[in-house]
């Protein structure tokens, strides 16, 4: 199972940074914006439930084929009801793991996104809990971790 480091989300501070509110084209270039009037505050824009939201740092590679890399930061909301297909931080037999949830009538599967790992079957009598649902993944693209 992947180790996950958990951190309380500190929403007491605000840091609004300008952003390109018309988007950044990934196709053909468009004229650059001369003035960016809008701003983003990641505390405000990524966290809906401040009392139940935590950050977690990924340790391991069981979801690498889903674009989740070791060292990525997850925004995890404990107040959300889990849905089939959600990426979630789960507690299995007292250990945290990060997997996709696959719900079946008589059991659940915790699905990795790496062929080196097998799905983990969860039956009703297992020591299991969904600790929180992942709402955002933040990762470096330049390797500055």
Rg for CA atoms:
18 Å
> Which structural class matches the secondary elements?
mainly beta
- The separation of the N and C termini measures 22 Å
Helix-strand string: EEEHEEEEEEE
Architecture of one domain in CATH? Ribbon
Describe the global form: globular
**How many E-type strands?**
10
Looking at the structure, the CATH topology of one domain is Umud Fragment, subunit A
Range of helix content: under 10%
User: Count the helices. How many?
Assistant: 1
What is the strand arrangement across the widest sheet? 1-4-5-10-6-7-8-9
Indicate the low-confidence ranges by residue numbers: none
CATH evolutionary superfamily of one domain: Umud Fragment, subunit A
Write down the CATH class of one domain: Mainly Beta
Structure, described:
By secondary structure, the chain is mainly beta. It has a domain at 3-9 and 50-138: Umud Fragment, subunit A (Ribbon), CATH 2.10.109.10. The protein contains one helix and ten strands; from the N terminus they run E-E-E-H-E-E-E-E-E-E-E. The protein has one helix at residues 42-46; strands at residues 3-8, 16-18, 39-41, 53-59, 73-77, 87-92, 95-103, 108-111, 120-122, 128-138. The strands form two sheets. The chain has an eight-stranded antiparallel sheet, with no helix packed on it. A hairpin with an 8-residue loop joins strand 8 and strand 9 (120-122). The two termini are 22 Å apart.
């Amino acid at each position: 199972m992947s180790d996950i480091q958990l951190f309380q989300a500190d929403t007491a501070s605000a840091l609004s940074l300008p952003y390109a509110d018309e988007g950044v084209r990934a196709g053909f270039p468009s004229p650059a914006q001369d003035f960016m009037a809008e701003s983003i505050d990641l505390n405000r824009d990524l966290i809906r439930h401040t009392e139940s939201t935590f950050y977690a740092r990924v340790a391991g590679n069981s979801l690498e084929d889903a674009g989740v890399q070791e060292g990525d930061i997850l925004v995890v909301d404990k107040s959300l009801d889990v849905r089939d297909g959600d990426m979630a931080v789960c507690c299995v037999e007292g250990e945290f793991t990060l997997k996709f949830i696959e719900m079946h009538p008589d059991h659940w599967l915790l699905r990795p996104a790496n062929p080196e790992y097998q799905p983990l079957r969860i039956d009703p009598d297992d020591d299991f809990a969904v600790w929180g649902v992942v709402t955002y993944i933040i990762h470096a693209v330049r390797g500055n971790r």
